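Technical annex B. To support the medicinal chemistry partners, we prepared a structural model of the target in complex with S-adenosyl-L-homocysteine, based solely on the information shown next.
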Amino acid sequence: MEAPSGQSLGRLEFALLSVSDLSLPSSAAPADGTAVAASAAVVARFADGDSGAAELRFYRDNGADDVVGVELANAQIFKLGPIQSICMSEGSETDKEKSYSKGFNIHFKTEEESEAFHCTFEQLKKEGSIKGTQLPNGVLSTSKSKFDEKIEASSAKMYFHYYGQLLHQQNMLQDYVRTGTYYAAVIENRADFTGRVVVDVGAGSGILSLFAAQAGAKHVYAVEASEMAEYARKLIAGNPSLSQRITVIKGKVEEVELPEKADILISEPMGTLLVNERMLESYVIARDRFLAPDGKMFPTVGRIHMAPFSDEYLFVEIANKALFWQQQSYYDVNLTPLYGTAFQGYFSQPVVDAFDPRLLVAPPIFHVIDFTKVKEEDLYEIDVPLRFTAAVGTRVHGLACWFDVLFDGSTVPRWLTTAPGSPTTHWYQLRCVLSQPLYVMAGQEITGRLHLVAHKSQSYTIYLTLQTKMWGPGAEQGGILQTSSGKLDLKEPYYRMSQPQSYTVAQDQQPHQLLQSQELNVQTQDIEEADLLEQPAQNSGAHFG
Ligand code: SAH
C-alpha cells in the first residue's frame, strides 16, 4: 500500500485502554463490568480477512493467545460515551441457529482516538474491504506496494510462511555467532540506543527489539510481516520490564505507517551471499521511509568477499551427480538425452557449506554495500569486476564467496563475519563451481566478472566468468588463455552441510594464509569507505554471551 506522495496513509491500528468480551461470564470481568485487562496493552486492528472482507480484530498483549474479531459487514458500533463504545456483530446469516452474536465493550485512550476509530470503522464497513479504500484520515492506495511490484506473490507467500514458523526463528537465534554479535554490538554501543526511537526491520521473534530496549531505547517499533509478529507480541509481553517500550506492528516495512521517525534502525536482513532474499532492499526502503536525517543503521555496511578456490573433491562430486543420466539402458530406456541438462543443472546450484580457507587460490577481494547510502535500485543488479593473483599453481574450480557486516557504533565498531576459518554461522560460505576448471600458475592473474541480477523470487541469478591471462614468456602479447563461465541460481543452493566432507588440501597446493593478506587487495572497494574498512579486528570475538 504505497501512499501517493503528499498524502498520508490512514491508520488501521488503534491502541485501546481496554476491551471486554460481553459474552464472557461476568465473573471474568471486574465488578464494574468494564475492563478485562486494563494493565495489558490492547490493540484493535482493521484488516482484510481470508475471505477478503474487512474485519476488526482485537489483540490482547497479556501473554494469552486470544485474538478475537468480527467481520465489519455484520457489525455495528455504538457510542456509550466520549471514550467508550460497544461493538456488536451478528452471527453468520446462513447459519443462524449455530452461531451467536458477539459484543465488545471498548474503552479508548482519548476522545480523538475514539473519533478516528469510529470514522475508520464506518468507512471500512461501507467499502467492504481495506484494499483501495479512502480513509477519513488518509488514503489507502490501490497501487501495489514496492514489495508487491517486485516480488512474485507465490514467492512472498512461501517466504513469510517460512519465517512465520518458530523453528526457523529458533535456528537463527541458536546461531550464537550471529545473535551474540548483535547483542554485543547493541549493548556495547548503548549510547546509540539510550533514549532513542528504534525501528526493528523484520523483527521476527522480536529479539533485536528486546536487545534495543535493554540498551535503553525510548521506544522500539518492531515491524514484522509474517505470522511471527503474533509470537513476537507474546514474547515481548512476557518481558514486562521491556514490553512497555516496544510496539509490534504486523506488516511489511514497505507498507506500514509509523507515528514517528527513528533515530536508529536495527535489522538482520542478510541472506546467503549477503543479498539472497532481497531483504536488503526492504532495509533500504525502511531507511528512506522511517529514518531521521543523520540516523544510524545497525548494521551500517556490508561487504561481499570473493576469491578463486581449488577443490577437486567438490568438483568431482558435482560432476558425478549427473552420471546417472549417462545410462543407456535404464530399464531398457536410454537416459543420455538428458545428461547435458542434468550436468548443467547441478553446476547451476551454488554450494553452501563451510570450507577450509586453505582451498583459496588467491587473496580475496571485496565489494562494499553501504546500507546508509545505497539506492534500492542499485541492488537490482550488482556487477563486480574480478582480479586476483594466484598464489599457487593449481586447478581453479570456481569462486568462493562470503560476507561480513559492520555495526558502526559510536563506542565500539563491531564486525559480524561469515569468513571461512572464522566460527561458522548458519550462512556458512557459498561457492560457485564452474563446469570447466582453469589451470593457473603461481603469480598468474585471474580476471573475470561476478554479475548478480535480482529476480522476482526474492533472489538472484549469478553470472560468473573467470579468465586466465597469458603468463610467462610471450605474455607481452597479452590475451586471454582460458575462459570459463557459469550461470547459477542463488535461490536453489546445494546445502552440502548434510554430507560432511574432510577438508583436504589439493595435493599440489601448500597451505596458504591468504585471508590475512586481504587488506592488500582492495580493488573493488569504494575509496570513500576506507575509514570503515579495516579488517575486522574482533572476528573471533563474535562469541558473546
Ligand atoms: N530480526 C530477527 C529475524 C531476522 S529474519 C532476528 O534477528 O532474529 C528476517 C525477518 O524479517 C523475518 O522474520 C521476515 O519475515 C522479516 N521480513 C522480511 N522482509 C520483510 C519486510 N519487507 N517487511 C517486514 N518484515 C520482513
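Notes passed to the chemistry partners:
The radius of gyration is 28 Å.
Residues 274 and 403 are 6 Å apart (CA to CA).
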